[in-house]
Amino acid sequence: MAKKPTDLDPSDGLIVDEVGAWAAEKHDRLRKYIDAYRSVRALYLPPKGTGGAGYIELFSGPGRSRLKGSNEFIDGSPIVAYKAAQQSRTRFSDLHFNDLDPDKSSALEKRIAALGGAGHFYSQAADAVVDKIVDALNPTGLHFAFLDPYKLEVLPFSIIRKLAAIPKMDMLIHVSVFDLQRNLRRYVAEGDVLDSFMPNWRGSVDVNRTDHGLRTDLLDYWLGEIRKLGTSPAEGIELVSGPGGQRLYWLVFVSAHPLGRKLWEDIRNINVQTRLL
Fold first, then answer.
1. Where are the domains of the chain?
2. pTM metric for this prediction
3. Residue 139 in contact with residue 165, Cβ under 8 Å?
4. What is residue 263's predicted lDDT score, i.e. its pLDDT?
5. Third-level CATH fold of 17-176+232-267
């Protein structure tokens, strides 16, 4: 089979991802949250503070994307986040971007540099590189991680546990309900993906429930495990759907501080969508 040709952005000649139009919703929420907590972030940056404010993506992609079925190109989440922080006049002090594909990581590094920025760029499995990133962050700082994997199996719970060990770490997590819906019964039967994503789930979830009830119970269990880490998911979890009504992903915001969760509640309703909670 012939290899699919690599998409290039004509504006810079670098590679891109292909995404659906609904990616704009994630990006709008990401942009608005970064702007909403600019005044809090400033408390950790000179001249007011020294703890720093880090931004982390473990599944960053190349920084630009082409909308599926079109020739329209848009910024990916790393560029959205970088520009939002610039425009808020409270830049992140540390940028950590990882993508398993070294070509994507290299393209992102060039794009950030073209905007006048610099950061740390990695090309490793997310569950391996998270240790390096956590070690590099100032534990007294205020940090934000955007976790945006395409499928559940690349987001083991160990990643969330390690990030949550930093006292002031906010996380916005994309949970692929499309992946869980399509592969639910296989994941339940085989166990390995769910065992990694939400350890010890089997003793707490009734696998004989309907598919809808089982998915809801699995998410409730996962949220409960996050709460045990000393951090809390916000009450509002967005269920984002595609243009045909297909359920795509949940956006879950997690923060150890009530202010972070309040800010998320203030900005999360970009469009009217079905909410899980």
1. 17-176+232-267
2. 0.92
3. no
4. 85
5. Rossmann fold (3.40.50)
